[in-house]
Amino acid sequence: HINHANWLCLSLLTREGHITSHHISVSIESKPRHTLRPLAVFVRIFTRAMPKYKLSYFPLRGRAEAIRITFAVAGVEFDDILVNPEEWFTKLKHSGLSPSGQLPILEVDGTVLTQSKAILSYLAKEFNLAPKGNLQQAQADSLAHVVNELETTLTEAYGEKDPERKEKGMKTATEEVIPDKCGYFEKILSANKNGFFIGEKLTYADIVVFTFLNSYFMKGKAEGIPEGLKKFPSLSAWYERVRTQPKILEKLKNPTDGFVDYIY
C-alpha cells in the first residue's frame, strides 16, 4: 500500500485526474495494466535504499568539518570514523585505505572518494545543496578552492618546524592572507544581495566558507559573530544567518566527541 502523500504523486504519474484525496491507499493488483509500469518506477524511486556513508578523518575539525556539517544540514546519518594520527602514519597511510594516502575519505557503499572539496561537491548534488546550473556550480567550486588555499596556508605555517619561519608564516596568514580573503568574501556577498553567496538559498559554498571561518575564529563554538569579521558588514550578517540555521546551530552545540584543538 502507498500512503496518502505518495498516492497524490502517483495519480500524476498515471494521469488519473479523477483520483481524489479520499483515495489514501491502493494495491498494485487493483491498478489497470497500463499503469503498472509507471507505478513500478515510482515504487522503486521511493523505496530505494539510502547509501551507506562512512567518513574517515583525524579527531579534528580541519578539512572534514564542512562534510560533517553538510550531513547535519541534510539530516543524513553517516559513520564518523575518528582515525588515530599515530596509527594512521605508522600503519594505515600505506594500507590502501585511502587511494591518495590522505584523509579525509568518504566511502559510499564501498566506493572511496578522496579530496574534501570533491566530497563536498558530490554530497551537495546528492542532498540538494548545490547551486542551479553549471555556472553557479563553478562559482561554488571556486569559493571552495579559495577555502582550500586558506587551509593549506594555515597548515603549512602551523606545521613549520623552524620556530622563526613558523612565527612569520602564521603572522602572514593571520594579518594578511585571511583578512584579504574576508574582503573578497565581503565583495561577493555585497554583490549578490540575496543573503547567501550564490542564489537565494543555502548551498555548500556557504557551508564550506562558514565552517572555515567558524573553525578558525571560534574553534567550532556556537557563539555569535567573531571579532575578526565585524569590520565586514555583509560577511558578518551572512555569518549570523548561516550560524543560526537550526541544523547548523544544533551541530555546533553538539560537536563530535574526541576532537583535539587545532589551528582551524
Automatic annotation (TrEMBL):
Q: Which InterPro entries match?
A: Glutathione-S-Trfase_C-like, Glutathione-S-Trfase_C_sf, Glutathione_S-Trfase, Glutathione_S-Trfase_N, GST_C, GST_superfamily, Thioredoxin-like_sf
Which Gene3D superfamilies does the UniProt entry name for this protein?
1.20.1050.10, Glutaredoxin (3.40.30.10)
Locate the GST C-terminal domain: which residues?
133-264
Recorded GO MF terms: glutathione transferase activity
Q: Which CDD domains match?
A: GST_C_Sigma_like, GST_N_Sigma_like
Residue ranges of the GST N-terminal domain?
51-131
One GO BP: glutathione metabolic process
PANTHER family (UniProt xref)? GLUTATHIONE S-TRANSFERASE (PTHR11571)
User: What protein name is recorded for this chain?
Assistant: Glutathione S-transferase
Q: Which source organism does the UniProt entry give?
A: Pocillopora meandrina
List the taxonomic lineage.
Answer: Eukaryota, Metazoa, Cnidaria, Anthozoa, Hexacorallia
